[in-house]
Every structure is written in structure tokens, then in C-alpha cells.
Design brief:
The complex is a heterodimer. By secondary structure, chain A is mainly α. Chain A has 13 helices and two strands, in the order αββαααααααααααα. In chain A, helix 3 (about 65-95) packs across helix 10. Chain A starts with a helix and ends with a helix. Chain B has helices at about 5-35, 40, 55-65, 70-100, 105-115, 125-135, 140-165, 170-175, 180-210, 215, 225-230, 240-260, 265-270. The chains are: A mainly alpha, B mainly alpha. At the A-B interface, helix 1, helix 3, helix 4, helix 5 and helix 6 of A face helix 1, helix 4, helix 5, helix 6 and helix 7 of B.
Chain lengths: ~290, ~280
């Protein structure tokens, strides 16, 4: 049904979106690439010429680099394990017949709509504060010494906060996937006497496979970039400096743009590696 | 779920699910309750849950002292503006890809998605520099453009998956019945597209409202939306719990309500149609 004229009209309709996104991608990215090969300190002498790959080498050999990679891995890994693990369990629970299912669903997904600065500050002050936080009250009630969450247990604290934000996302997507499972299959296996764990491993998990992969990839991309949660809780102190936060500090706090840009390019490459896997899955779905 | 379940089992499920649900919701509930306490009650040990003198003082304090209205207006302007602008650009694009697909449509869609994966921190300085040069730093307009661009891929994708569900046969049928192009657009396609456009609008408004990288880094006093306003509360211990709670409640309440209406679209929008 597409004629020549409708084709060119279609191209015309598509053009603004493509041009804008192309500009949004190419202009800043090529600037970052440009800076990454320069010694560039805006507050201390500005542009001091080309330095080849020096920034790239310095970024990975600085003493802050490997700890930041480790921090990133712990936070991303921890949040993924908690949200996907609990998410599967919660999705299966919410799929069961019960009273007030709709309301429980609403309660469970609520944290996703809370802006990151609010959730970080609420957790930091009202729950994890060692003097006035609710956790401190509970600890004292049981005769234990209150924990200074964000300094003594900074990484677990951040993982708790971020998991709370992302558990709804994982649960909601996994629940959607579980609901598409043909229940007659489960019924048949139940009648044949298959125990719960067998049903879980051989029927439910394989059915959820694709949804789990999608949750994993999308969350990884967003989690690699978490910023506000660290910005308002620890400001990168107490071992919570992730790769993203390290780059942010290099660029805006210490104003070493060359070095930060090299870090930025590393981050872009890392994100792209993960993105390729995600795009494969999404792309396959387009054909279907 | 047509499986027969004993009542006992159902009671057990209900109790377990409600317990978990309330536990997950508790931080929000606690913030809400605290917003009606005095600062002294807010940090009382043991904590007071319901039986305190409820007061609206915190809300009036926050409104009066901090120019809350300005931040609220900035949030509405930036989230609303970026969403509307995004829709204006995305609707024709998604439309053309859904109804006049070409060999490259799939590649274009995937490429658009890939721009969404670009880590913000990787382009922070260039954007910062461009903003300074163009005088866009700390302006609502600048932030609106940036948020429109980062959400444009999601908007295009969501619209595309909705538009693709509109059967092409309907168009042919209406054409056979002698409908003109104008009639076709106005009476056939638009009514079918409106629900999809509405849910896209809703979800992207929420995403833009909660965005907390660019809003924190590209604004100061003038154009700061609520995300940045709340971040300014990361202040000394214990003194401002009730006011922080009141400010937080006001910042999240409208979005929470919108979010509950958009829960179905959320899955489609955030998985780029891969899970429906």
C-alpha cells in the first residue's frame, strides 16, 4: 500500500526525530572524545594541548580506578540479585489468588514512582540516621548499639536503597510474564504429582527466562548510571564512589576535563557492550 | 487463574502478600505520617505512629520559607514541556515507521534505543559547555530540551508499539467506503491512537518528573525542579524530618497517583515492547 509519495512523506515525518537524536548523540560524544586526548583543566590553565592516550592510561592507573570498579560491581550485582530474586518470589506470590490483589500491587510498585532524591534522603535521614533514624530506635529497643549505616555499612545501605527503588520494576515485569504462563501446564504437572521445586525449575523458570534477561539488562544499564542516590547520601565517601561518580568528580569537582572525558569514553564502551545484548533481544521481538 | 484453591491457602496468600506490600510501602507511609508531626514528635523515641497532634504547620512552613511554588512550577514546566515536545516530534516518526515500514525501520528503531543507553556522565562536560556557551545553564528551556532528547527514544518506541497494533485493514475498509484522507485521519486513526498517546504521555511525564542527573547538574536557583529542591534538604541531622517529609510528600504525591494509573503501560514502555 506504500506508494512512492507516501514513502517520501514517511521519510519527511521521520526526519526530525532522527536528526535530533543524531545530533544529541554525535555532538557531545565527539566533544568528549576530543577532550579525552587533551590536557584540559578549565580552572588551571585551560587547554594545554594534545597528550595522546595519556588520560586513558592515567584514568585506569589512578589509585581510585579499581576500587571504583569494584564498588560499581558490588552495587550493581547486589541490587540485581536482590531485585530479581525477590522479584521472582513476589511475582509468584502476587499471581496467587487472594483478597485485595489490586491494592497489594499498588503498594508494591509505589517506590518506583518516588524521585531518587526523595527516596535517598528519606532512607538516609528517617531510617538510617544513627541517632534519630527508625532503625536506630529499633536497634536500641533490642538493646543493640545503633549502626552508622551510611558510613560503617555504606555499600549495603546503598544496595538497600537502590533495591527498594528497583524491586517494583522487576516484580511488575516478572508478574506480567508469569501471568502469560498457561496455567493448564502447571495443573497437569501438579496432577502428575510434580513437587513444587520441580514445577518451579522445569516450568516457571524457563518461561520467565526472557523476562529475567530483559530485567537484568535494562536494570544494569540504569544501575551503572546511578547518581542522585550517592550524591545526596554519601557524596562518594566511605567507599561508595562508583565509576560514574568518579567520572563526575573528575569532570565537575576537580575540573580535570581531559581525564574525566577519558573515563567517560570507558563508560560509553562499557554501556555499549551491555546494550548490544539487550538490542538483540528487543530486535528479535520486532520480527515476531 | 481458574484453579480451585482452598480457602486456607487463599488466607495464607493474602496475609503474606499484604505483609510484604505494607513493608515495601512503609517508607512512603512513614514519610506521609511524619509530615503531619511536629519536629519534636518526628524524632521521638520510641517513635509515635498514629496518636499525635496532627498539624499542617510543616506544609505551610515549606511553602512559605522555600519558595516551593517556584520549584513545583519548574517541575511541571520541564516535565510537561519535554513530554509534549517529545510527542510532537515522535508521533509523526512512530506513525511513519508503523504504517510505511521500510527495510531500515528496524535498524532505525534499534539505533534510537541505543542513544538511550548512552551514559549521561560520558557527555556531562560537553553538555555543560554547550549550555554555558548558549546561555542555557539554569534555564527551564535548556532542561526541557535535554529531557526531551533523553526520553525521545522511549516515546518513539512506545508509540510505535501502540500504532503497530492498529490494523491496516481498517484503513483500507474506510477508503473503500469513500473516506477522504482527512476523514481517515480524523475519524478512524485518531480515535484508535489516542489511548496509546495518552499512556505514552503519562509515563514520560513521570520519567521526566523524577529525572535526577541532568536536573541536579544543569540547574541552580532559578530553574531547579523538585528533585533539586529536595536534594537541598540533605542538611544537618534530625532537625528537619517533618519538613523534609512534607516537602517529599508534596513532590511525590501527584506522581504516585499518576503512576498507579499507568502501571500497565509501564511494563511496555520500559521494556521497549519486549514484554507486554
Amino acid at each position: 500500500m506504500a506508494t512512492q509519495s507516501s514513502r517520501s512523506a514517511a521519510r519527511f515525518m521521520l526526519a526530525p526525530a532522527v536528526i535530533l537524536l543524531l545530533g544529541w548523540m554525535l555532538v557531545p560524544l565527539s566533544m568528549t572524545l576530543y577532550f579525552s586526548f587533551k590536557r584540559f583543566l578549565p580552572l588551571r590553565g585551560g587547554d594545554q594541548g594534545w597528550v595522546g592516550f595519556e588520560n586513558y592510561v592515567r584514568f585506569v592507573t589512578s589509585s581510585a580506578f579499581w576500587p571504583s570498579v569494584l564498588t560499581t560491581l558490588i552495587i550493581v550485582g547486589g541490587v540485581l540479585i536482590i531485585t530479581i530474586g525477590l522479584g521472582i518470589w513476589l511475582a509468584m506470590l502476587l499471581d496467587q489468588p487472594m483478597w485485595g490483589q489490586g491494592i497489594v500491587r499498588i503498594l508494591v510498585i509505589a517506590p518506583f514512582f518516588v524521585m531518587p532524591t526523595v527516596s535517598a534522603l528519606v532512607w538516609k535521614n528517617m531510617f538510617m540516621d544513627p541517632v534519630n533514624g527508625l532503625f536506630a530506635h529499633i536497634w536500641k529497643f533490642f538493646g543493640a548499639a545503633p549502626v552508622e549505616w551510611l558510613s560503617q555499612a555504606s555499600l549495603p545501605s546503598l544496595i538497600i536503597i537502590v533495591s527498594w527503588q528497583w524491586l517494583p520494576f522487576a516484580t511488575l515485569i516478572l508478574l506480567t510474564a508469569i501471568q502469560s504462563l498457561d496455567s493448564s501446564q502447571l495443573e497437569a504437572s501438579e496432577m502428575d504429582g510434580a513437587p513444587f521445586h520441580a514445577r518451579f525449575i522445569y516450568i516457571i523458570l524457563p518461561h520467565l527466562g526472557r523476562a529475567i534477561t530483559i530485567v537484568l539488562l535494562i536494570q544494569t544499564i540504569f544501575l551503572l548510571g546511578i547518581f542522585a542516590e550517592i550524591f545526596v547520601t554519601t557524596g562518594g565517601a566511605f567507599g561508595t564512589r562508583t565509576l560514574t561518580y568518579l567520572i563526575y568528580q573528575r569532570v565537575l569537582e576537580s575540573q580535570n576535563v581531559g581525564l574525566g572525558s577519558a573515563g567517560g569514553i570507558y563508560a560509553v564502551i562499557l554501556a555499549n557492550i551491555i546494550a548490544i545484548f539487550l538490542m538483540r533481544i528487543v530486535g528479535k521481538n520486532l520480527d515476531a | 487463574m481458574a484453579r480451585a484453591v482452598t480457602n486456607n491457602r487463599k488466607i495464607l496468600n493474602t496475609v503474606a502478600a499484604w505483609t510484604i506490600g505494607i513493608l515495601i510501602f512503609f517508607p512512603i507511609l512513614w514519610t506521609f505520617l511524619t509530615s503531619f508531626k511536629t519536629e519534636a514528635t518526628a524524632i521521638a523515641d520510641p517513635p509515635v505512629v498514629l496518636f499525635f497532634d496532627w498539624t499542617l504547620q510543616n506544609y505551610t512552613d515549606v511553602m512559605e520559607r522555600s519558595n516551593y511554588g517556584l520549584f513545583l512550577w519548574n517541575s511541571i514546566f520541564i516535565a510537561g514541556g519535554s513530554t509534549l515536545l517529545g510527542l510532537i516530534i515522535a508521533i509523526p516518526a512512530a506513525w511513519s515507521m508503523a504504517f510505511v515500514p521500510s527495510r531500515r525501520t528496524k535498524d532505525i528503531l534499534l539505533w534510537m534505543l541505543s542513544t538511550k543507553m548512552l551514559p549521561a556522565v560520558g557527555v556531562l562536560y560537553p553538555i555543560y559547555l554547550i549550555f554555558i556557551k548558549l546561555g542555557l545553564l539554569d534555564t527551564k528551556f535548556g532542561l526541557t530540551i535535554v529531557l526531551m532528547l533523553i526520553n525521545l527514544p522511549i516515546i518513539v518506541w512506545m508509540l510505535y508499539t501502540y500504532f503497530r497494533e492498529i490494523p491496516g485493514e481498517i484503513l483500507e475498509a474506510s477508503r473503500m467506503d469513500g473516506a477522504s484522507l482527512k476523514d481517515e485521519l480524523l475519524y478512524v486513526l485518531t480515535p484508535m491512537a489516542v489511548p496509546g498517546i495518552a499512556s505514552t504521555l503519562l509515563l514520560n511525564f513521570i520519567l521526566a518528573w523524577n529525572e535526577a542527573f541532568w536536573t541536579l547538574n544543569l540547574t541552580a536557583a532559578k530553574a531547579a525542579p523538585l528533585t533539586a529542591f529536595i536534594a537541598s534538604y540533605s542538611s544537618p541531622e534530625g532537625l528537619f524530618y517533618a519538613k523534609l517529609s512534607a516537602a517529599s510528600t508534596m513532590a511525590i504525591a501527584p506522581i504516585l497517583i499518576m503512576g498507579w494509573f499507568s502501571q500497565k503501560q509501564l511494563v511496555r514502555g520500559l521494556t521497549f515492547g519486549a514484554v507486554k
